[in-house]
Amino acid sequence: MAVKRIFLDPSRCIGCRSCVAACRECDTHKGETMIFIDYLNRGNTVASSPTLCMHCEEPLAPCAQVCPAQAILVSPDGVVHQADETRCVNIRNCVYVCPFGVPKFDGPGRYMRKCNLCYDRTSIGLPPMCASVCPTQAIFYGTYEEWIQSGRAQQGAKPVNVFYFGKQRVRTRNYVVMREEQDALDLMALAAEASLGNLSTTPAATADGEVEPWVEADSAGIPERMAPPQPWAPRTPAPLPAPVAPPAPAPAPEREPAPVGPEPVPVP
Question: Which of 37, 52, 100, 133 has the greatest number of beta carbons closer than 10 A?
Answer without folding.
Answer: 52
